[in-house]
Amino acid sequence: MKSSRREFIRQSTSAAVLAGTGLLSERRILANHLIPAAGYPLTFPPIFQGGSLEAKSALKEIWPGFPASVLALNGTVPGPTIRLKRGERFKARVQNSLNEPLVLHWHGILGPARMDGNPRDAVAAGMSYELDFAIDQRAGTYWYHAHTDRLTAKQVYSGLAGFFIVDDPMEDSLGLPRGEFDVPLLLQDRRSNAAHTLDYSPGMDDMILGFLGDTTTVNGVPSASLSVQRALYRFRLLNGSNARVFRIGLGEGAKFKLIANDAGLLPAPIEVTSLFLAPGNRADILVNFTDFAHGSTVELKSLAFSGDMTMGSTQGETRTIMKFVGQHVGSVGPAPTALLPFTPHDPFEAKRTRQFMITMPDGGHGGHMAGMTADLINGLLYQMDRTDFTVPFGDLEIWEFHNMAEHMHPMHPHGVLFQVLSRSSAPTLPPEDSGWKDTVLVRPGEIVRTLVKFDAHEGPFVLHCHNLEHEDAGMMLNFDVTAAPTVEGPRLSVRRQVSEFIVTAPHDATAYRLEATEHLGHDALWVPVTVTPTHEIEGLAFRFPLDGSAQFFRLAKI
Ligand code: C2O
Ligand code: CU
Ligand code: CU
C-alpha cells in the first residue's frame, strides 16, 4: 500500500491523528523507553493558505504519548510551509498570542527592511502586524523563524520555524522531481529528557557552545522514517537547529547530488558523499533510489568531523538523522545535468573590504568571565538601538569574516544573498560554498571572504551568528543600507585598487597610526604602514601602494 506525501500533508501531528494511524500501540512501547525500530512516519507541515500566522503556546506530542508544551504557529510545529511563486505577494498577519514579545523573520527572503523581522520590530503579547511585499528572487528553499531580541533561541527551539519555498517557471521547466518526490526536511537538533518534552533550559556552557542535543527531529518528528519509491527524490534540507552543525551523509558513503544551496539552484548538480550544513543553511539534494531494494533502509546521517576547539562540545559527533525505507514501486526519470546558471560577482569590482573580527570576549581562553557572553563581532556586543556601520546601496563589497575564537560561527547578514569568494582553510571552495548563500560557516582560525552587494532594499538590517545562543548573547550587529553618501562608522574600510590600497578611517583617526599584518592569529605581526594621507569625501583616507604582504589593517593609538 502506498502512503503518499499528500496524505501526510492532510494529516497533522496532533494526538488525535496519531491515535488514528495506529501509533497507539507504539505509545506503550515508548512508555518503556523504546522507540519502534521502524521509527515514526515522517509528517509534513500544512501549506499556509494566507490570512493569519498566529503564534500561540500549545500542547503537542513530539514523542508520541508524551504531551509537550510548544510554541505553535496556526496550531502546528513546525509552522505551516509558505509556498509562493516568484512575482506573487506575500501577505500575512502575524498575530502574537504568546505571553512575550515576538517578531518573525523571513530568512533568505529579500523583503523590505521594516518587514524583515528585525528584533527592533517585535510586537508585544497580544499585538499583531501586517506583512505585504512582492517576492522577487530566485526560486529556492528559504525559511522563517522567530527573531525576538534575546528570545530567538527559545522561541525557535519551542517550534516557531517553518519553510518558505519560492518556485518559478524556470525551475519548473528543468524536470526536477516534483509533488511527492519534492520533500522538505527540517532538521532540528533536540536534547532528549525523561519527560520527552522540548524543554529549553540552557546552562552556562550552553550559552557559550550553543544548546546542543543528542537526537534530531525532522519536520518535528523524532526517529523519523519515510517510505520511498524506486525514484529520484529532491530533498530540501534545512538546518533549523539552534547550534548543531551537520555533516550530511547517506548510508555507508553513498553518493548524492547537491543541486542548490541557500538561495536556489547551482549551475549544475555536484556529486558529493558529504556536505556541511550549518544552522540556517539549506541544501537541496537529489537522491536516486532506483536500485533500492524493497524493505531495505538507508540512513540520513550527520558524519563525524572535528568541530569546536572547546572541551565538552559534542559538535562533530555522528548522528542518525532519519531513515528512508524502500518500496518496490516507482520508476526513475533522468536527473537533469544542467540547472540554472547565474552571473558570479567579479571580485575586481569590489569597492571596499569590510572586516569582521570574531574574538573571544575579555577573559580570554576558556575564561568567559563575562558570564553569558558569547564571542564578539568587532569587539561589539549587540545593542538594539545602535547602528554599527553603514553600507552603500548597490556597491559590491568584500566581507571578510575572521574567526579568531574557538567556536564555529555560521554568519548571516539579512537583506542580501551573497557568494563565497575564498576560505583560508581550503585551496578550492567546497560544494556547499557554491552558488548563492545567505549563511556561511566560519570555523575556528578560518578567514572566509564573501562578495556582498545590497541591491534589493535599503534600511536597517542585522548581521549575526546563526548559532542562536550566540545571537541571543549579543553576537549581532546593526547596519544601515543606504543610498545616501555616508561617513564610515568606527571600522576601517579597505579598498583594494589595481595598484594601491585605500584605507578609509573615521574622522578621529589622527590620534592613531595605521598598522598592517599579513595574517591574523595569536602570532600576528603588526607593522606600521607608511602612507600618504589624502582627504576623501568619506573621511580620512590612507592611500599607499599594494606591497603584497599587507592583508589586514588596524588603527593603533599613537
Ligand atoms: Cu535565520 Cu537573522 O536569521
Ligand atoms: Cu535571516
Ligand atoms: Cu556563533
The CATH superfamily of the largest domain is known as Cupredoxins -  blue copper proteins
Uncertain ranges: 1-32, 363-370, 485-490
Annotated CATH architecture of the largest domain: Sandwich
Gyration radius from CA atoms, angstroms: 24 Å
| CATH class placement of the largest domain | Mainly Beta
What topology, given as strand order, has the largest sheet?
12-11-10-14-19-16-17
User: What is the general shape?
Assistant: globular
Our measurement of the CA-to-CA distance between the termini, rounded to an integer number of angstroms, reads: 78 Å
CATH topology heading of the largest domain: Immunoglobulin-like
**Unique ligands:** CU-O-CU linkage, copper (II) ion
Provide the helix percentage. Answer: under 10%
What percentage of amino acids are in beta strands?
A: 35-45%
Task: Explain what you see.
The chain has 558 residues and is mainly beta. The chain has 4 domains: 9-39 and 175-326, Immunoglobulin-like, CATH 2.60.40; 41-172, Immunoglobulin-like; 347-482, Sandwich (Immunoglobulin-like), CATH 2.60.40; 493-557, no CATH class. 7% of the residues lie in helices and 40% in strands. It is built from 7 helices and 38 strands. The strands form 8 sheets. A 7-stranded mixed β-sheet has the order 12-11-10-14-19-16-17, with no helix packed on it. A 6-stranded mixed β-sheet has the order 1-13-21-20-15-18, with no helix packed on it. A hairpin with a 2-residue loop joins strand 2 (52-63) and strand 3 (66-73). It is globular and about 75 Å long. 46% of the residues are buried. Mean pLDDT is 86; it is low at 1-32, 363-370 and 485-490. The chain binds CU-O-CU linkage and copper (II) ion (2 copies). The site of CU-O-CU linkage (C2O) has 10 residues, from strand 6 and strand 30.
